[in-house]
Every structure is written in C-alpha cells, then in structure tokens.
Amino acid sequence: MLCCQSFGNNQKRVFIAAFFSCALLVVVQYKFNYFSLSQCSTNGRFVKRVVEEELVEKNDLRSDEIKNKNVIVKSVENEKCRPTEYVLFLKTHKTGSSTITNILNRYAVQHNKTVLLPKGSEYYSFDWPNKFRLSSAINTYKRPNFLANHARYSRKSMNVLFPREDTMYISVLRHPVSQWESTFQYMSFPYILDISYQEDAMDFFLNNPPSTENIMEISRKYPSLYLIRNPLFFDLGLDHSHYDNSSYIKRALKTLDKDFELFLIMEHFDESLTLLRRKLCWEIDDVVYFKMNERLSQNKRNVVTQDQEQKIKAWNNADVVLYNYFVEKFWRQVKDEGPGFYDEVIELKKRRKEYSKLCIEKEAVEEAYSSVFVKGYKIKANLTGKNQTFCRHMLTNEIHFMDYFRGQHAKWVDLLEGDTIKNFDESTEEADIFIKIPVINATDFIYGAQNRPEYSKTIKKKKNIIHKDRTSKRDKHKEKNQLNFIQESSDTNDVNIKVSKTTELMEELSNADIAGKSLPLKKNLEDLKFDGKTIVKTQPENETLPWL
Ligand SMILES: Nc1ncnc2c1ncn2[C@@H]1O[C@H](COP(=O)(O)OS(=O)(=O)O)[C@@H](OP(=O)(O)O)[C@H]1O
After folding, report:
1. How far is CA 65 from CA 34, 36, 53, 109, in A?
2. Which of 264, 287, 291, 366 most suits a substitution to test ligand 1, by most atoms within 8 Å of the C-beta?
3. pLDDT, tens digit, for every residue of 448-474?
4. Each residue of 322-364: pLDDT tens digit?
5. Any transmembrane segments, and where (predicted)?
6. Which of 437, 438, 440 is nearest to 514 (CA)?
7. Is the distance from CB of 153 to CB of 142 less than 8 angstroms?
8. Ligand 1 atom nearest 398 alpha carbon
9. Fewer beta carbons within 10 angstroms: which end of the chain, N or C?
10. pTM for the whole structure
C-alpha cells in the first residue's frame, strides 16, 4: 500500500527510492505469485485475472496452483452455504403442505436422510390432534433429519428430537378464508355437524356457529372438528380456550416468530420455495413440484360472498392475526434477499413447466386417503432411468413415502441388530411405493372385468375416522345410492368386478364428473358407494382413529 501513496514533501530522492522499492516488490510478488489485489492498482481484480491468464497461457507450473486456489475460493464460498441437515416442517392442514412434504420426502430419499415417522404402521400423523409427544414417534436409532408429516406443535418435545439451535423450523400458511373453506369441505364438516341437508351448509354454519363446548364435545368423537376454528393456529399449538384471549395470541405469535425461521405462504408458493431453497442451500430442482391434494372442481365452492368472508374472518380471528403477521414478515424476508431473487422465482416456474412436460401424461383422479378423492396425475409411460425415478418421486404422495420409509427403517434396525442383510448401503433397490400407483379408468371400473397386473400391489390406506360413522341423514342418502360391487376374483393378476345396480344409477355415474377419469383401484371394493358426485369409499366399521 505504501508504494502507491503520494509522498508529502515530494523530495526527489525519497520518491525515487520509493519508486524502485515498489517496483522491486512488484517483481518479487509477481515471481512468487503473492500478488495482492489492492496493490498499486485501482483495478486489482482485473490485474489478478490478467496475471493468472498469463500464467495459464504460459503453461507455467503454477497454473495448477492457481486452479487449486480457485477451488479453495469456491469451497470457501460453499462453506457459507451448506445444505441444512435438520428441518422440522410443521405440516398445517389444507395449506399446500402435502406438496412441501413431497419436496422434503424426495430430498430425504435422494440424500439418504432420516425422516421421523409416526409410531404404528397404520398411522400417518403424530398423534394429531394431541400435541406432539416423543412417544408418538418411532425410535429411529439415529438422529432424525426431517419431520414432515402432520404433527401438532409442541415446543418442548419437538426440541428434544429437533433441537432448535441447529434445526430449521418451517411451516406454511394460507389465507384464512380460503383455507377455512377448503377445510370445511374437505373434512366433511357439514356431515359431522349434521347440517349437510341445508341448502348451503357453510352459510348456515356461519350464521349459526356452535359454542366452544359444543365443538369440544363433537370433536372428541370426530377429532378433525378441532380444525373448525382457527385451524392454522390449532396446528401451531394454540388451544380453543385461547382463541378469544388477544394477549395470549400475541404471546403465542412472538414465540412462533422466535422458533420458526420461515413461514411459507401458499398464495406465493414459488416465492416461498425460492426463499426456502436459499435458506436450506438446496438446488432449484430440489424444490420443483406438482401441486398435490387439490380438490376436484365439483368439490370446490365457487363463490364466497363478502358477507361470508367477513364472517369467516371473524370466526377465525386468531388465524387472521397469525396470517397477517407472517405475510408481512415474509415480504421483509424476500426483500432482504436482494436482487436476483426474482430471477430464481422465474427459473423455478420454468423448471416446473419443463418437468410437467417431462413427467405428466394427463391429469387423473387420485385417492388422497380413504373416501377422499383429489386431483392427481398420470405419469408418462415411456420414462426411463433417472427421469423415471425423479418423476415418480415427484408424484408420490406422503402415505406411500411413509410406507417406504418404514421399510427402510425396518432394514436399518435389522442391520443394527446384525441380521444378514448385506450391502444395505449399496442397495439400489426401489421401494414398492415407486411402483406405479394403480389407477383404473372410472368407466372401465364400473362396467367390467379388468386385467391389471398392478392390482396385486395393495396400497395401504391412511386410516382416518373423519368419514366414519357420518350422520344418519347422510347415510340414508348414501344407502339410496349404494352400488353393490362384487369382486368376482382377486388373484394376483386378474380382477373381475361386477357391478349390480339399476341402470338409472349407472347413467348417473357416467354423467358424473368422474366418468372417463382414472380412479385408484383398491383391493376392497365391496364398500364403494356413490354419493351423487363421486365414488367414495366408506370406512370399515371397526376402523379407529389414528390419533386415539
Ligand atoms: N403449489 C400449490 N399452490 C397453491 N395451492 C396448492 C399448492 N399445492 C397444494 N395446494 C392446495 O392446498 C390444498 C391442499 O393442502 P394440503 O396438502 O395441506 O392438505 S392436507 O391437509 O394435507 O390434506 C388444496 O387446496 P384446495 O384445492 O382448495 O382444497 C390444494 O389445491
């Protein structure tokens, strides 16, 4: 630095001496490649590049050294951004959370991460609606990396398995009006509340909301009803008894703000995932997605009037506060990312389109879990290799992933216990979940015998009581329309299904929206019924709640 400064008294001799010593220093530095960027140049960066290029050009022995230096520079940069190892995703209901769970699950498969699973092979939530407890999770016998399935927030017990100091806590929120409308319909609240006979059950509910005591009482039998009010905050740990206590709500907000690094916002999905990707230090392809769990259009409500909107907001007062607070924070976080952020959002949108072209043949109907059908996708048949694996992963729902992880867990335990599984780490075996999700055409399904090899693959269903034992009015309606499916044979490769029912109902079925679409094929077809809109599958009588 000295050599570049102007000398105060301009004495000639001093200047000449300084000049020569500077020149000497430059030569020495050049020779030994110790060139400092700021030295003797206002454009040190440029000088360094020129010097390096020259050296490389000359095939100087030190060109390797320079390359190595660059490698070091890169790895130093990478160190600033190392993929996050531990993520707790608090999966809220009806917020696009299954799409995010898919992202985490497939990252876990690709990078050999351990996903925490609910205890009990039939259960797909962590004892929800109870708050998360250690006893509701499988013992992974190693530190789990991700939690990505429905669990109700519990700071203390979650902190044991996912210490906040090195776990990224994230969740997702949706506008309380559309989230509540989706929950209300998807969770069949009109049936649970016995108001399904009303012309507009939602409107009726909003004008005649039940008391908290009433909700609590019915919720004991139908736990999904806990989501009837402030469903977002309920998942995030707030109890019904606090919904009207504004100072408690404020404190809860502050705690969540402290605990959670990021609340994704469903309405801004691509921005959310870009922010998430940056925070996790993942690649863009890690967060590409296909929308999951979208209701069939006939199950969506077309219009929510302004009056209804106001009532929904008033009813879900705590969720409105929660949503507004974190949306504001979300935009602050986006702003902090600076320029370049939106280029990545655009890139993500572009990749989504590309993957959609690559993977999807057409939209189909999929069974989210028992009795509930949502939009799904039919994977292209001609995919092979990595593309096929990637597309399958993207299209696999959380139930199938959980079954897969359970299989992996069993192998891990066998390995720990010293059983004879060899080469576990090198195993390239693909799990059953990635074997095509069986789909059949709804019309074929109705009219006749099918030869479908995939049929032998039984898909475990998510146990869920929500649809069990619905109100008598609904049962009466359904009895009237019950189809009597007779499964004639069900050996591994050949399934013959005969449907005995009046032509009248057949016509109704073929006119319904599902006609011509694909439906998942289940092993037990006997209890399929038709409710006027879509084929639904009733719960066996002895089915119990996953969370009781
Ligand atoms: N990417 C993306 N963008 C916008 N909206 C999306 C996205 N992914 C899912 N969804 C919508 O989220 C609803 C399903 O939410 P969940 O997966 O959380 O449901 S569940 O609680 O796991 O059953 C469901 O909303 P409704 O269709 O209104 O019910 C989906 O359509």
Report:
1. 12, 16, 13, 38
2. 291
3. 222 222 222 323 333 332 333 333 333
4. 999 999 999 999 999 999 999 999 999 999 999 999 999 998 8
5. 14-32
6. 440
7. no
8. 22
9. N
10. 0.68
